[in-house]
Amino acid sequence: MAGDNASTSNATTGKGRIRATQGNGSAPKESKELKGLTVERVWTTEGVHPYDEIEWERRDVVMTNWRDGSINFEQRGVEYPTSWSVNAANIVTTKYFRGAVGTPQREWSLKQLIDRVAKTYRAAGEKYGYFATSTDAEIFEHELTWMLLHQVFSFNSPVWFNVGTASPQQVSACFILSVDDSMDSILDWYKEEGLIFKGGSGSGVNLSRIRSSKELLSSGGTASGPVSFMRGADASAGTIKSGGATRRAAKMVILDIDHPDIEEFVETKAREEDKIRALRDAGFDMDLGGADIVSVQYQNANNSVRVSDEFMTAVENGTEFGLRSRLDGSVIETIDAKGLFRKVALAAWECADPGIQYDDIINDWHTNPETGRITASNPCSEYMSLDDSSCNLASLNLMKFLKDDGGFEIEKFVKSVEFIITAMDISICFADFPTERIGATTRAYRQLGIGYANIGALLMASGLPYDSDGGRTVAASITSLMTGTAYRRSAELAGIVGAYDGYARNAKAHQRVMRKHAAANDDIRAFSTVSDAIREAAGEQWTLGNKIGEKNGWRNAQASVLAPTGTIGLMMDCDTTGIEPDLALVKFKKLVGGGSMQIVNQTVPRALRSIGYQEEQIEAIVEHIGEHGHVIDAPGLKTEHYSIFDCAMGARSISPMGHVRMMAAVQPFISGAISKTVNMPEDATVEEVEEVYFQGWKLGLKALAIYRDNCKVGQPLSAMKKEAPAEEPKAEVEKVVEKVIEYRPVRKRLPKKRSSQTVSYSVAGAEGYLTASGYPDGGLGEVFLKMSKQGSTLAGVMDAFSVAISIGLQHGVPLETFVNKFTNMRFEPAGMTDDPDIRMASSVMDYIFRRLALDYLDFETRSELGILTARERAAQVAAEQEAAVDLAGMAASAPVPTKAPEPVVTAAAVTEPAKPADAKVPAQPAPVQARTSTELLELVQGRSADAPLCFTCGTKMRPAGSCYVCEGCGSTSGCS
What we know:
Blueprint: E1 17-21, E2 28-35, E3 56-64, E4 71-81, H1 86-95, H2 110-127, H3 134-149, E5 153-155, H4 157-162, E6 174-176, H5 183-198, E7 202-206, H6 226-241, E8 250-256, H7 262-281, E9 302-307, H8 309-317, E10 320-324, E11 331-336, H9 337-351, E12 355-358, H10 359-364, E13 376-377, E14 384-385, E15 389-397, H11 410-430, H12 436-445, E16 448-453, H13 455-461, H14 469-497, H15 503-522, H16 529-552, H17 566-571, E17 586-590, E18 596-600, H18 603-610, H19 615-628, H20 656-666, E19 677-680, H21 686-698, E20 703-708, E21 756-763, E22 766-774, E23 780-787, H22 793-810, H23 815-822, E24 831-835, E25 838-841, H24 844-856, H25 859-865, H26 870-886, H27 933-941, E26 958-960, E27 963-965
Helix pairs in contact: 2-3, 2-11, 3-11, 5-6, 7-9, 8-9, 9-21, 11-14, 13-18, 14-16, 14-20, 15-16, 18-19, 23-24
């Protein structure tokens, strides 16, 4: 697609003239007539509709709760291309098809979904004067359809939810609000935030205008301070998130580093984490989503501090820093800058909050400083712009542009960006917004957020380590090409439908930022022929775009961000989200007809081919990865190639600074920022957190957040034990002293530190977790049973039953008494289990107390109860068989192996059935019962991963930028 001779400066004559429209696209701005876009085919074939080029099939989409087998969603006979994975089809059907299930109004084909969106964009483009002719509009629609159909890119979720429906045409996922120092403004904040949450989106706000608790009110009293008002907003978010929204409320709260209440803000969530520990140790359910977590405050927002260059320089030099009054800007308190920075890092080390945003860097790249400063971001920190504004996002699938020979499809990439930016800008013309102020600002500045997914997969497939100069050079070049093309197209659109309304007053600043982007492109270091070609193409786009922009202005104040791409990444069948590296080398593939299989990521063999390995070698290496989950000691793989396969998690994980360096490489080519959390190991120190935050400033990032493994008590973990099973859980907070009235028998309480083990189990497909804690002498004193989702009746009954059993044990009721009472109970579910020692169970209770007997009762007691391990049973039968032979050759009742297999009873792993002694057993087989990539990674590593459970379907989510995405149903914890 091209403008008039690549520039719109001459576009004043010829047929198909249209009137230039106002920045909001609602009415003619001036009488001067300009020519619309001339659209050329890139992906499509003239005379052939994109739908007719591919093969289609009908599928049944049935989503079940993997814990109890109940059906959550069912729609049969849906139509998809045969090339689409089962997972992508399931997520699109459940998330994006509109209409009540089971009614004729329900969408049933991907064609209907794409047509609903693409035709709406075409119609709006024609209405608001974007195309020279109707033929150009038709080609645009077909090209857009082809790219969506072939998963080349995707719009953000609100587009799929709303465009072309009777609902408000909400297209934005990211919102920034504003709060002033007045009660009316604070209450407006609560209301506006609630409206945004109701629609399933997220918002961010900076509370620094609110005067501190150290300042006086006009009435003479002392102000409450922003932290106190955060409580009300947190409660509101907690209520609305459970009120039927499409996902949890996502929000960001920011406070400037010079605010007098900054220390209270920094320590807020860390103090709440201490409270969570105390309540957990007292026996309350403090998992994320647990019954008692609602009693803890400030858990519904991400917190970030805004630091200035002045503050960071004071940290660097070890000098003092002034905290300023909100009323007149005067210094009301002087603090040690290093000490405050240490508190920020310590709080982040303890509970992952606060993140950090670098105010001067953000505003140095701001195209609209005459309108106002950038003070806040959306919840995931990728969208940073004016207060009371929004941004609609779209992301490219980079793997679609990787050639078989390792080259990059530069021309097709450029043309695709043109199409996407044009479509995104058209959407602002017809979009609806949650508040009047947001609508006015967005229409006046038209912020867009084009981005990408699959950079991690592209680098691996190209044989480049994520944490390498080569990897960073390719990522920077592609990002520069994307944003340079986006702004060039924006300048062309400005010549056709007008520059954004706020451009005139910000023209010099906008042009300055464009020159900064272009200069940064020149600074990309040479690395390879491929990356150099991309960089040169990007330079051409910046040069041409800036030349056109100086004449026409630009249509959009912002053009690009790097979002988490959670749900839409699954829709596009991407291996990696946003700017992330691969999560792990093994993943799950859902199968038609149900079930799933574990596979090695397909980028692995492609990467091995790209660096010269033969097919036989590739087969052996892939087999090794499938068994072990990593490349260490893979047969034939050179150690210098290990780093190509480093992932975000696992045996060879990328270092925290590796993530920071990648962000720094691409930041100069992004209008907004980057949604990414830098994962740090559990043994990381506070000093290392300080170094990451400090280097983020030095390297020119706009925002940064860290997450230290297992730093959150309220984070639901898998039932997997740590790598060192003998390690006892830490109890960092003293229990509340209770007044105990002694009766007979006397309750013998467990010590604060107690050893425990967790076993995951499956009975006839119903899965759950059994956690048992013991006294120092080895006796059982406490059990916790988890089945079904939090808040369900069954979960409540199991919690109550656990408490009853635990109290009984602590009052001296022998375990064998419970075993006698509860074994052989019969009720559903009943049947096969995944435990090699207990192959059949007549009920869940039967299984649980047999397992407890095996773990805590001696052999003699268990023998009397008839409860033995697989090995003991085999030995017993073998002995009986031997005795029978000695007694005149009496036939044994049943043949058995001569050597019994070792029972596999790990703390939490879902074990496979026992194998014959001579069977070949892999050293570290990746368990086959996990149901998500995160769970598989946990079982391969032998330790739990910090990731929340999906609020929709209960499965464990995986990281996506600074958010999480559910591979089962596509729900996200963020705003993309």
